[in-house]
Specification:
CATH class: Alpha Beta
Distance between the termini: 30 Å
Structural class: alpha+beta
Oligomer: single chain
Shape: globular
Number of domains: 1
Strand order of the largest sheet: 3-2-1-4-7-6-5
Helix content: 40-55%
CATH architecture: 3-Layer(aba) Sandwich
Radius of gyration: 17 Å
Number of strands: 7
Largest sheet: 7 strands, mixed
CATH superfamily: Class II aldolase/adducin N-terminal domain
């Protein structure tokens, strides 16, 4: 488990999806949560930087302190039994949308509509606060990937590969939106096209 967290921390860094000591990663094995320690740089993790905690947030080993965002990770795991891995980062383009408090929902790419439906924005709250947990987790009732206003992005998946793919796809979505606005004459999918995509999404994802 710890080696997987290290692996994806480096991948996020290599893909320019995280910088310095921002963001955190966790994975849940059904009993314990393995989460990055507070103040660690995801691109330079080693296994000593990953802390084992229980679902109440208690650290199960001596050593470094778990991320200050552990309450958010634990609340998502408790809400969504299908989620076994979580990545929170400040990827530049997705975070730009979060900074503008603008959801990612523009119908510009068919695949993104099928994949996400939309990516909502959770209302702003102080980092590491209970209000941030409440605001963010509420969006996970219906979505797997959520922007956090003036903060960043968080995604949950069946494993770290799945969570990473969602983060990477969301960043590409945001980047494509920005570039298409720069180019101009952005062509949005029409109502019939969106209806067809919604039906296809329901067949694939069941929602």
């Amino acid at each position: 488990m710890k080696n997987e967290v290290v692996k994806f921390g480096k991948l996020l860094y290599d893909k320019d999806l995280t910088s310095a000591t921002s963001g955190n990663i966790s994975v849940f094995d059904g009993k314990s949560v393995f989460i990055t320690a507070t103040g660690t740089a995801l691109g330079f993790l080693n296994e000593d930087d990953v802390v084992e905690i229980d679902l109440n947030g208690n650290e199960l080993e001596n050593g470094k302190k778990a991320s200050s965002e552990k309450k958010m990770h634990l609340a998502i795991y408790k809400l969504r039994p299908d989620i076994k891995a979580i990545i929170h980062c400040h990827s530049p383009f997705a975070t730009a949308f979060a900074a503008c408090r603008k959801e990612l929902s523009a119908p510009i790419i068919a695949e993104n509509i099928i994949y996400f439906g939309k990516i909502p924005v959770a209302p702003y709250a102080m980092p590491s606060s209970q209000q941030l947990v409440d605001n963010t987790v509420k969006e996970f009732v219906d979505y797997d990937t959520v922007l956090m206003a003036n903060h960043g992005i968080v995604s949950g998946g069946s494993d770290l590969t799945n969570a990473f793919h969602k983060i990477e796809t969301a960043e590409t979505y945001a980047k494509t939106y920005v570039y298409s606005k720069i180019i101009g004459n952005q062509a949005l999918l029409n109502e019939q096209e969106l209806s067809d995509l919604a039906n296809l999404r329901k067949k694939i994802h069941g929602k």
